[in-house]
Amino acid sequence: RSVFRCLFANSKWAVMCLLTGVNVRDALNQAMDEELERDERVFLLGEEVAQYDGAYKVSRGLWKKYGDKRIIDTPITEMGFAGIAVGAAFAGLRPICEFMTWNFSMQAIDQVINSAAKTYYMSAGVQPVPIVFRGPNGSSAGVAAQHSQCFAAWYGHCPGLKVVSPWNSEDARGLLKAAIRDDNPVVFLENELMYGVPFDLSEEVMHKDFVVPIGKAKVERQGTHITLVSHSRCVGFCLEAAAVLAKEGVECEVSNSLLDIIFVSVSYTNGLFEEGCTPLFAECPAFNYLDAPAVRVTGVDIPMPYAKILEDHSVPQIKDIIFSVKKVLNM
Question: What keywords appear on the UniProt entry (predicted)?
Fold first, then answer.
C-alpha cells in the first residue's frame, strides 16, 4: 500500500489507470487539464465546452476549475469563434478551438487555412500561430452524410497545418500535449466512437511531461509478411484482422500512422496494405521493395447513408482488411 502511494501520489489519473484503464475521452481531458495548469496562455473555447462540460464531455470539470476566462462557451458560429481563436494565437495566447464535429469546420475553413495555416510561413517565421483545432472526425453511428466526413486528407493536403489522428489513449494524451505546445497550427482529429474505449497506460505515459512527437509513426504489432498502415479507429481494426490472420500463418505488421515508418516496415515485409493513406507512397523509396501493388481499403465513394446496415457496408470492416491482405498475398 505504501509503495502504491509512493508511485502514484502525484497523479490521480494514474490511480484510475491502474484500476480500470483510461479511456480516450479522459486522456484528452487530462492533457488539456495539465496544459492549462502548466501554461496560463492556454485556453479552450467552443460550443458547450464550459458549463455543459462539452458535447462529448471531453472538457468535463475544466470550467469549474479554471473559470470563464480560460474555458469559454461560444455562440453557434464556427467562423466567428475560430477567427477569435486565430487572432488570440497571433497575440501570443495558445488557444484550443473545439469544433463540436469537424463537419462544422467547413463554416470556418477560411480561418483554418487562409488565416492559421499560412501566416507563420508568410511572415517568414516572425508570427507563430500556436493553435489547436480539435473535435470528433469521421464516421460515427447513425449521423448520416453531413456528420460523417473524414477530414484527414482534406486538411492533410493543406501546407502549414500539422494533422494528427490519434487511435488510443496514449496517442490522445501524448499527441494533444505536443499539439498544444507546438508553435504551428495543429488539426487534431478525434474519433467519437473511441471516446469511451479504455486502454492501459504506463506510469511513463501518465507523467505530466510525456508527449508523443508529432509525425512519428509507431509499430503496434511486429510482423514479417505484410505491413498494415492505418490511423485512428482503424488501427484497432487492423490489429484484430492481424490476430485472425495469424491463426492462418500470416504475420502482419501494424503501423499506427503514415509515411515515416513505411520504408522500414516494407523493406522487410515486401507488401503493403493502406487504410485511408495518402497516395504519396508511390514516390517513397519503399515502393521499390514491394512484391505486389499496394492496396487501399477505404470508405466507399458515396455520401454516408443513415441506415445502419448501409452505413456498415460503407466503411472499412475487419473482414475487408482480411480479404485485402489475402488478395495481396495471393491466398
Answer: Carbohydrate metabolism, Glucose metabolism, Oxidoreductase, Pyruvate, Thiamine pyrophosphate
CATH topology of domain 2-206: Rossmann fold (3.40.50)
Beta-bridged to residue 272, according to DSSP, are 227
C-alpha cell at 129: 500561430
Cα torsion through 120, 123, 127, 132, rounded to 10: -20
Structural fold of domain 218-328? Rossmann fold (3.40.50)
Residues of the chain with CATH 3.40.50.970: 2-206
Residue 72 CA to residue 49 CA, distance in Å, equals: 7
Q: What is the pLDDT of residues 257-308, one digit of tens each?
A: 754 444 444 443 444 444 444 444 555 666 666 777 777 888 888 888 888 8
Its pTM stands at 0.85
Helix axes 234-246, 318-328, angle to 10 degrees: 60
Q: Tell me which residue of 16, 88, 98, 90 sits closest to 53, measured CA to CA.
A: 98
